[in-house]
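Hi there, hope your week has been kind to you so far. Thanks so much in advance, here it is:
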Amino acid sequence: MTVDDWYEQRRKQGIVSTPQRAPAGASDEELQKQQQETEEEEDDEEALRKARDWDDWKDTHPRGYGNRHNMG
């Protein structure tokens, strides 16, 4: 019994769903392009704004700026 046969048998029984596979004939370059496109889509304006705000905050608040009360 091959792996594909096992998955087919389990799918018919309703135990597991079929695994996600790459489309037939898809090369590594095509997969990398698709992955890169999804990464670019994930870089939205809100994430960029948050990163810039965090950088600005770090500029005005040096390390160790926090609660300095009761230090002696």
User: Anything to note?
Assistant: The first helix runs from residue 3 to 13.
